[in-house]
What we know:
The complex is a heterodimer.
Chain A: H1 3-11, H2 17-29, H3 31-48, H4 78-101, H5 115-118, H6 127-131, H7 138-146, H8 154-163, H9 166-187
Helix pairs in contact in A: 1-3, 4-9
Chain B: H1 7-15, H2 19-41, H3 44-60, H4 70-91, H5 101-110, H6 118-135, H7 140-151, H8 156-163, H9 167-186
Amino acid sequence: xxxxxxxxxxxxxxxxxxxxxxxxxxxxxxxxxxxxxxxxxxxxxxxxxxxxxxxxxxxxxxxxxxxxxxxxxxxxxxxxxxxxxxxxxxxxxxxxxxxxxxxxxxxxxxxxxxxxxxxxxxxxxxxxxxxxxxxxxxxxxxxxxxxxxxxxxxxxxxxxxxxxxxxxxxxxxxxxxxxxxxxxxxxxxx
Amino acid sequence: xxxxxxxxxxxxxxxxxxxxxxxxxxxxxxxxxxxxxxxxxxxxxxxxxxxxxxxxxxxxxxxxxxxxxxxxxxxxxxxxxxxxxxxxxxxxxxxxxxxxxxxxxxxxxxxxxxxxxxxxxxxxxxxxxxxxxxxxxxxxxxxxxxxxxxxxxxxxxxxxxxxxxxxxxxxxxxxxxxxxxxxxxxxxxxxxxxxxxx
Lengths: 190, 198
C-alpha cells in the first residue's frame, strides 16, 4: 500500500488495528505527514458539505417512452469511425491522384486516337519482334485506317466517357464514406 | 433519496414496460443522480442532459437489471453518461462551474451557519468552491470516484459496483484523487484553518 493509500485508508478508518498503531506512531514523529493527514481530513469533511444543487427540472419520462424508438448507440468506438474516415480519405485522394496523374495507364486510353500505336517499328528491329507484340490483336492497329468515319467522333466520345469512370465513381463514394464516418467520429456525442 | 416503499415491485413493473412505475423511481433518485452528474461535469446543462440520458438508458435496459443495489445500477448509468459527456466536452469546451456559482451560493447561504462568523462562513464557502473547481481538473475516473465517495458518501463497495471495478481500484483512485485535491488546498493556506498557516 502506498503512503497516499495509507493516508486515505487511515482517514476512512479502514486500517487494521496493527496498521493503525504503526501509522499513528509515524504520525507522532512526522509533522509533514501529520499535516497531510489533517488536510485530507479537512478535504473529506468539506467535500461532504458541498451543497446539493437544485434540480433544474423533473426527469420523469413521457408515458409513451416505452413505444418510442430508442436512439441506437454507436456500434463501434469513436476512434474506429475516425480511423475509417482517415483511411477512406487517403484512398480517395490516392484514387484521384492516380486518375488525374496517370491517364495513359488506364484502359480508357485505348479509345484515344491510335496514331502512336500505328507508328511502324524501327526498320532495324527483326521481323519476329515487329510482329510478335501485335499478333494477339491484329485489328487494333488496323482500326484507325479501316474505320476512318469514326475517327473524328472518337475524341469527343472519349472526353465524355472519361468523366464518369469507375475510379472516379469509386473516389466519390469513398469521399461520401469519409464524410459520413467523419461526422460519426467527430460530430457525435460519446 | 431511494426511500421508496416497494422498490422491487416498481422495478418489476418497469421491467414489464410500465413507465409510470419507472417514473416513481425517477422521482426518488433524480436529485442524487443530477447532483452526481453536476459535480462530475461542473455544468448544469450538461448535467441535466446526462441525467436525462441516464434515466432513458436505464428504462431501456431495465430488463437487464438482475437485482443488487438499484442505486448503484442507476449510478453506473449516470457515470457512463457523464463519461460520454466528458468526451464531448473535451472536443467542445463549454461553461465551467464558475457559471453556476450564483445558484450554488444561494443554496449554500441557506445552510445553517451555526455560530460561525461571517468571515469564517465566507472562507469555508471559498474553500468548498476551491474543492469543487479542483475536482473538475481530476482525470475522469478519479473525479467520479471522489464525487461518489467524498461528496455523496457512498461506500467503497457501492462505488465498485457503480463503476464496475474492484475495491482495490476504488481505493487507489480515491487516494490519488484526494492527494491531488489536498495539494490544491495546501496551495491556498489563506483559505485553511489556523493550524495550517504556521
